[in-house]
UniProtKB/TrEMBL annotation, chains A, B:
It comes from Paractinoplanes rishiriensis. PANTHER family: ACYL-COA DEHYDROGENASE (PTHR42803), ACYL-COA DEHYDROGENASE-RELATED (PTHR42803:SF3). Keywords: FAD, Flavoprotein, Oxidoreductase. Belongs to the acyl-CoA dehydrogenase family. GO terms for molecular function: flavin adenine dinucleotide binding; oxidoreductase activity, acting on the CH-CH group of donors. Residues 161-270 form the Acyl-CoA oxidase/dehydrogenase middle domain. Residues 38-155 form the Acyl-CoA dehydrogenase/oxidase N-terminal domain. Residues 456-569 form the Acetyl-CoA dehydrogenase-like C-terminal domain. Its cofactor is FAD. InterPro entries: Acyl-CoA_dh-like_C_dom, Acyl-CoA_Oxase/DH_mid-dom, Acyl-CoA_Oxase/DH_mid-dom_sf, AcylCo_DH-like_C, AcylCo_DH/oxidase_C, AcylCoA_DH/ox_N, AcylCoA_DH/ox_N_sf, AcylCoA_DH/oxidase_NM_dom_sf. Residues 280-439 form the Acyl-CoA dehydrogenase/oxidase C-terminal domain. It comes from the Bacteria. This is Acyl-CoA dehydrogenase. Gene3D superfamilies: Acyl-CoA dehydrogenase/oxidase, N-terminal domain, Butyryl-CoA Dehydrogenase, subunit A, domain 2, Butyryl-CoA Dehydrogenase, subunit A, domain 3.
Length: 574, 574
């Protein structure tokens, strides 16, 4: 069985729960069928196993280096990206007119999870390129699409997003990079950008940077930000790559994990840039890409947790050590560690985290395939949870995977220690967990008079009512509780009080949402016989009985409108 | 201010809370005074800052390598160990007759924390040597003391403990290494030992291994284990180092962190060994060393968490980013991130973890200085908590430290990412968290009809009764609750049921014990004015109101005598 992902679980989620075959009734997906979906899934598994997984460790040990002239990346990366592009996966969800396959997002998301689980470092390049291309297709001119998007989809160019600056990470309103009209319709872009994943390398003919910058005279704050295409090289009218643009690599960041993806500090010095859409709408366009990237980060966290879990499960069945608690006869033969209760605890918890996280990511992706105002609203509310919950809990699955491997798990001879380091990034990039919490409680649950939260709770309740009472009951109660707590927090509209414990709110809401995902899987499993369905029923029970109660103290704290953090005098801290 | 540890906090804990000056009334410590204690503390801080901290990162990047002949360690390590030995700290707690200073354990523990926080990799060598020497002083012959202990205390030799084997990590009863009497009073020791910290290097003239092995014909299980001194080189009658003994390095393990300490697979091939004490008592002697090592591991986890916290606190005051929630005027100047509630949450939680953990470690150490049957019992009960609690929660402080640093915290340009990796080991070595949980619930709280737990709860209650009601009340309630839960779990003496959720028990008991440590600090702070005391009062309040409630769902689960883990069919897991 693959230790990258479980195809059996993907099939269950896609076909037995989400019923993605029914999407083929839609005009956009009319050319598709279970067979074409399966063909993409099969292909993804094959390429991930053959071209991505084998160099995952080498990507870590021999991380990219900058020799002062160019960035060196191990050759397996370019080879894997070539196979990926040729497979058609890079353009899978795009219109046929753009060279795509109009594959549903939910299936494409499942496909891409194979690559993220097999090699998060290498998979970041196409992920960023797809997000970049998607933004330009939505907001760019025809010429920008022809010049930049087509070569990206052909694998000749790669893409990045350049938001952060050394002094402005979470706080984009402090962006200093400036753009000056050059008089010919282009702009001269100058400034410093930080944390640019895929920001420099020799993996493509050039790199298409999407850069947030402020046009001279624009207002302060995020409303003054515009978006520019700034390629590493200028592109000639015939589409070939010309001379270098004013973008230079100031240095690479050396990370704890995720080392296979270059991460750069870039200097823009009067670089030629092309305005995307209208001035002052840069952040709005970028949010298009960022929301997709946030779901991608959540998916990456799930993928790393999932492969960690599968490695730990396999190890727990091979590794023989000690005897079950009840019969400590030293003459009895030792048993595989999967028989020890504490190892099972870590395995079952991990299963609940990674399969719950996977369900959430696929559920969110499917909302994109059935667009409606309601689905847009639901996705808006869910996005901070899809991003942050797996970043915390699927990371914990990797932590458990290390622990289950014991001393071996702490060594670089076993892959789980890399998963643990790699997954640590996901709580940081594309908006930290704390930023997601503020987004959820400060914006998403209050917007449109709370319509998003009400819709979410309606959906959860509908699922809970179909579940066995002993599982559905606690979830129904938690829905009521979260609604009350939200009202309590915002009762006087004071954001300092309401947001004082925003992270506790995100934690509670996240666990409720994943409890919902478990009830949904429980309902889909029904009474069907077999170890696979037993596993779904067991994990659903585990999540409701062992995990959901964690929300109790969090909601108690929120209900108390505690402002210990907001009020404290930081001199007390030491 | 030092970012290694807080001397102000150590002074508070040692002098204002634990009253260690009163120890000088004891005959053993009669030559000491506040001045001599302070001199050792000052010296430790100086040496840690000057000789240990500066090479902490180099220890990580240029980890020890084995060229097939010898193990290469960066030269700063030997230099630091020389200074450490010459300072007198290696023998600080030992009898004057053995060249020691009869320093109280509690003061020595505080001193050693400076080295663990400054450089956990380098500090492991003296920690292991001290534990080894302590065991031989307690159980070895005069000749063994003369031959091995004296050179260890002079810094000429270093020591290890060799328990684990490739097939026997947590399960020592499966030890296969065997010892055959050579006919001259010595033994020939053969077998393979795994995870031997400090197991090979050129930092000392030779290495004194303490090896668990089974004499031919000994019974199965732990009762058949005996302990042997097996030096890397034979020692000549004049005390000089002679030819190599039959101990060879089979390889080094390459770890996620803690890289400055070599970790070896050792092959013993008819190596000459000297029996320590009586046959069959090996594990009992080793537990002497292991209990000390477990407190040392807890202390290491505290030290790494503490330095992580201090780095994060300093960074949060320097790093300017964003605006406080209530006033999002983009024209307002950005603020230091310490003003953001979510950063404060992580800082205050970290403070509560690391200062609570430090208090616990020092409390436990002081029990050794006032030996009595009661104190022995209390230390027995506390040891698994002292080991496991900081390994989880002070590790979380390092996790928070990474998060507070944002992207910078994920890079190797900042020290917190190393602390995070280093601290991951502490939940694994010297008995995993799961093993500590079984030790606590399966042995420590049941032994002597529960006298240990009763004593612990009495001590906690006495402190809680002196605390303000709103803080003491929840702790008193938790004491009653833990006592009831313990009785419920063991009511029919079925270990399979009682131990099914042992980790939840450890988690709950650990949080209760640290809540006690916070009440004790709160009581010691009293109403004294100043930011330092405000901080103690604030963190105590935080721990009781934000942390202690976590125990509720854990105790609910335990009360339900849930056996989901024990009963499950592992085929369900995937």
């Amino acid at each position: 069985m693959s230790k990258i992902l479980s195809r059996r679980d993907l099939d269950f989620l896609l076909y037995e729960w989400l019923g993605v075959e029914a999407l083929t009734a839609r005009e956009r997906f009319a050319e598709h069928s279970r067979e074409t979906f399966d063909a993409f899934l099969d292909l993804s598994e094959q390429i991930a196993e053959r071209d991505f997984a084998p160099h995952n460790r080498r990507n870590d040990i021999e991380e990219p280096t900058f020799d002062g002239v160019r960035v060196q990346v191990i050759p397996e990366v370019a080879a894997a990206l070539k196979v990926f592009t040729e497979s058609g996966l890079l353009a899978a969800t795009l219109d046929v007119g753009h060279g795509g396959y109009q594959l549903p997002h939910v299936v494409a998301r499942a496909c891409f999870l194979w690559f993220q689980a097999a090699n998060i470092g290498t998979s970041s390049y196409p992920m960023l390129t797809m997000a970049n291309a998607g933004l330009l297709l939505a907001h760019g001119t025809e010429e920008q699409v022809a010049t930049f998007v087509r070569p990206m989809l052909e694998g000749r160019f790669t893409g990045t997003m350049c938001l952060s600056e050394p002094q402005a990470g979470s706080s984009l309103s402090d962006t200093l990079t400036r753009a000056v009209p050059a008089g010919d319709g282009t702009y001269k872009v100058s400034g410093s950008k930080m944390w640019i994943s895929g920001g420099d390398h020799e993996l493509s003919e050039t790199i298409v940077h999407l850069v947030l910058a402020r046009v001279a005279g624009a207002p302060a704050g995020v409303k003054g930000l515009s978006l520019f295409v700034v390629p590493k090289h200028l592109v000639e009218p015939d589409g070939t790559v010309g001379e270098r643009n004013g973008v230079t690599l100031a240095g690479l960041n050396h990370k704890m994990g995720y080392r296979g993806t270059t991460n750069a500090v870039l200097s823009f010095d009067e670089a030629t840039g092309y305005l995307v859409g209208e001035q002052g709408r840069g952040l709005a366009y970028m949010f298009h890409m960022m929301n997709e990237a946030r779901i991608g980060v959540g998916a990456g966290a799930v993928a790393l947790g999932y492969t960690g879990y599968l490695h730990a499960l396999a190890y727990s069945r091979e590794r023989v050590q000690g005897r079950p608690v009840a019969g400590k006869d030293p003459a009895a033969p030792p048993v595989p560690i999967v028989q020890h209760p504490d190892v099972r605890r870590m395995l079952l918890a991990s299963k609940a985290y990674v399969e719950g996280g996977l369900a959430l990511v696929l559920y969110a992706a499917k909302l994109l395939d059935e667009p409606s105002p309601e689905h847009d609203l639901l996705l808006d509310v869910l996005t901070p949870i899809v991003k942050a919950w797996p970043s915390q809990w699927c990371r914990l699955a990797d932590d458990h995977a290390v622990q289950i491997h014991g001393g071996y798990g702490y060594t670089r001879e076993y892959p789980v220690e890399q998963f643990y380091r790699d997954n640590r990034l996901n709580s940081i990039h594309e908006g930290t967990d704390g930023i997601q919490a503020l987004d959820l409680l400060g914006r998403k649950v209050t917007m449109r008079d709370g319509a998003g939260l009400a819709l979410l709770l309606d959906r959860i309740r509908a699922t809970a009512r179909q579940a066995p009472d002993d599982l559905g009951g606690p979830v129904l109660a938690a829905c009521d509780r979260l609604a009350r707590t939200t009202a309590t927090l915002w009762r006087d509209g004071n954001p300092t009080v309401a947001l004082a414990n925003a992270t506790a709110y995100l934690d509670a809401a996240g666990h409720l949402v994943v409890a919902w995902m478990w009830l949904a899987q429980r309902n889909a499993a029904g009474d069907r016989a077999g170890a696979f369905y037993d596993g779904k029923r067991l994990a659903a029970r585990y999540f409701i009985t062992h995990e959901l109660p964690r929300t109790g103290p969090l909601l108690d704290l929120l209900d108390s409108r505690d402002t210990l953090m907001a009020d404290l005098d930081d001199r007390c801290l030491g």
